[in-house]
Amino acid sequence: MAELDRVIHEPARLLIVALLATVEEADFLYLLKATELTKGNLSTHLAKLEEAEYVEIKKAYRGKIPMTLVRLTPNGLAAFESYREEMTALLKTTRSSRRAMGRPISVAHQKA
To answer: End-to-end CA distance of the chain, in Å?
Structure first.
């Protein structure tokens, strides 16, 4: 099995990429609210994604108000799709392994 993409695997970056995979582009404030990250954390994660060429960041203006727009690049979308497929395969393998070992897939908590 291929190794998971460590850039996307980090939970905050995975959330950012998953959000961007559903839209053409998003502004910084939308991502800030949707991820519940701080401005500094979001900026840091976006910088890492930009460095990996998974996102494109563009500064623009709406009237006189500056805004930061973020979009997933084709490389970013391909990386996200690949990550999703790898995780799906990993989860299927784990589930099959549990069945083969006779372990229950779900466990209910009982009162003591």
So the answer is: 41
Alpha helices in the chain (DSSP H): 6-9, 11-20, 28-35, 39-51, 74-100
Q: Which of 87, 53, 93 is nearest to 71 (CA)?
A: 53
pLDDT-derived band at 110, boundaries 50, 70, 90: low
Domains with residue ranges and CATH for the chain: 6-96 (1.10.10.10)
CB atoms within 10 A of CB 24: 8
pTM (2 d.p.): 0.80
Torsion of CA 7, 8, 12, 14, to 10 degrees: 170
